Amino acid sequence: MSEQEARAAWRDLIGQLQPRATLRRGLIGDGGGHVEVAGRPGWSWIRYEENQNRLAMVLCPIGYLAEGTWVLVGKFHPEEDYEQVLGVTWGPYAFGLSNYTFAFYRVAAHGETHHGTYGSDPAYIDYANLVMGRVSPTSPASLAVYVDSFVYGYASETKDFNGYMLDLTAEVPAGAGHCYVLVYFDPDTEAIGYEVSATVPLAVSPTLPGLTDFNAIPLGIVELYNGQTEIDIDNTWQRKLLLGAVGSDALTPLKLAVVYEGAVVTNNGEIVWHT
């Protein structure tokens, strides 16, 4: 045996004696919507791939992951005490991976850097961060949007709207160009509705649709274009009103009334009578 062959045999022997860390795949969560283990901070429920009917706990120091996320579990070093979640397993997401899913999972936990005015990754809060009444793409993506639940005032009552899935397939422009869809809530009928702008060339911004209903609550804008097969986060903008009227008394249909030739008519024709 040559010296080179002897060295190779020695390396193989040493390699076999080294402790090896095993890696396992699993689904985060208990299958019933619970992720975090009560009373054990930093630990999550997991169902390992080889036996998904059996529930286990695993250290998850990378932060909160959604129920049903595929993860890789193991040890960074063989001598560590506990296995832990090392990261997301991308295999199950390789086909049909959307930009939304990729952006959601690719960033490690870094909450300490978030702030509105300082930190290496400032967190500027915009309307899309507020889930109340948010208009957002579906998962998996489709030509529908989901309107999240919210609380609203109606006359002297405070009411709950439980959310709604709005299918906009029929409004995709049949010809070249794009349009805007204004999604709104009608408190009189307790239903979601929408207005569609005219279709214009892609190089031109559509005119935002207006609301004809006096009581309608605007929620969001959705862009639709010819040939579109799904709505993603880049096609939606929030249009919620966070502040009520300020500076004067609230307007009512009677305060908006116009008098002419003995008739009283509101600006939207809701109340009409003659003298």
Give me a quick take on this structure.
With 275 residues, the protein is mainly beta.
Q: What is the total tally of β strands?
A: 17
Strand order of the largest sheet: 3-2-1-4-5
Reported for the largest beta sheet, the result is: 5 strands, antiparallel
Count of individual helical segments: 2
Q: Tell me the helix content.
A: under 10%
Which percent range describes the beta-strand content? 25-35%
Arithmetic mean pLDDT? 80
Apparent shape: elongated
Structural class: mainly beta
Gap between N and C termini, in Å? 118 Å
Overall tally of domains: 3
Q: Which stretches of 5+ consecutive residues score pLDDT under 50?
A: 254-260
The CATH class name of the largest domain reads Mainly Beta
How would you spell out the order of helices and strands?
Answer: HEEEEEHEEEEEEEEEEEE
Q: Cα-atom Rg, whole angstroms? A: 28 Å
CATH fold type of the largest domain? Immunoglobulin-like
